[in-house]
From TrEMBL:
Mg(2+) binds at residues 52-54, 265, 267-268. The lineage of its organism: Bacteria, Pseudomonadati, Bacteroidota, Flavobacteriia, Flavobacteriales. The keyword Metal-binding applies. Belongs to the ADP-ribosylglycohydrolase family. Keywords: Glycosidase, Hydrolase, Magnesium, Metal-binding. This is ADP-ribosyl-[dinitrogen reductase] glycohydrolase. It comes from Chryseobacterium indoltheticum. Its cofactor is Mg(2+). It comes from the Bacteria.
Amino acid sequence: MKNVVKAGIFGVCIGDALGVPVEFKKREDLKTYPVTGYLEYMSWNQPKGTWSDDSSLTLCLADELTKGYDLEKIGQSFVKWNKYGHWTAHGRLFDIGGTTRHSIARLIKGESARFSGNIFEEDNGNGSLMRILPLAFYFKDEENIEKLYQIVKEVSSITHGHFRSVFACFIYVIFAIELIKGKDKKEAYNHVQKTALKYAEIQGFNPNEIQLFEKVLRNDISRYSEDEIRGSGYVLHSLEASLWCFLNTENYSEAVLKAVNLGEDTDTTGAITGGIAGIYYGFENIPDEWIAELVRKEDIELLCEKLENKLMK
Ligand SMILES: [Mg+2]
């Protein structure tokens, strides 16, 4: 598939940038004044087209993958983001989640990326799900599901090491891989449900944890009503919301706007939805003006080309 890295990465960054100005807004307010394109200032006082931590950490991961897979180097690039504004829209960070901040603090003190993450149940924000997409490009041809799971687990666990976060990332990555392979939406979704449930059974994962994924894995998430979908910062809500938005819309802009207009953690729901919608509908389906006004679009484009070239070798 041509430009698939570019489609996915721009998909994340634009979904993020659409959500940044309205982060924390309630759904009922967004029903009155829905987001239909880039806004400016408001929640974070940032100019139009500014993306946040979701995109920064996605770009850090993508950038490291252009040099090969090295967990410690990925962790160090997160440190560079945190300390020096590496891969930020305007040279400095303006948004960071608590779990990510604590984990990066451990990396700064010299902890290995294997042990830096938080591992408790309350550490299941969407902070690793929002940055995991580049793994789908890099490991799209990996046929060993065990190996794929372990990689997703270690990359999520740099910050988010609880099973729920890891398994949410795993579901998202295997879904994205199916879309990269050109599968139809429904076909990809059915495949993911079967693969994830089978893998959970073989591994003997805690059934109580797997039960929490019931809406996504055992039922059809697209059939829930909007009232049953939350746009909060909880990883399970973000996974459900992004799949729901993607499966219930017909193009990139509809999908990301639906995500942002769910309210609450608008930038992250936008980013996670935008990644898969970008891959599925292609770069050409992303509105030109959103690409044109995205901050650092040239740098992002160069990075995508670098990763695309690396993957073709
Ligand atoms: Mg953000």
